[in-house]
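Hello,

Our lab assistant flagged a job as stuck in the queue for most of the afternoon. It eventually completed. Since we weren't sure the result was trustworthy after the delay, we are filing this so someone can double-check. Below is the sequence as submitted and the structure that was eventually returned. Let us know if re-running is recommended.
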Amino acid sequence: MSVEAIAVREIDVFVVADYGPNYTYAPSAQERAEFLIKTFPNSAAAKNRRYVLIPYQYINPSIQNALGVKTLAEGFFPEAFQ
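-- returned structure --
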């Protein structure tokens, strides 16, 4: 997806894959979340600083996908888990 295509969308929550501390070839998940906030400052996600860091193993096809769904649900609807 291009930056322009993302910029015109309503973004409520950024989702960022967290590759873990052993992955040294890219910025950390937190740094990438901050980059999205700076890059798309007019989005609701940036204004409200809403993002979900999801462990990489939760988004690969496996039985851990259920944990990924739970992680996303908690990030999208935190009030439902209080």
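-- support follow-up --
The delay was a queue issue, not a problem with the job. The result is valid. The longest strand covers residues 14-18. The chain has one domain: 3-81.
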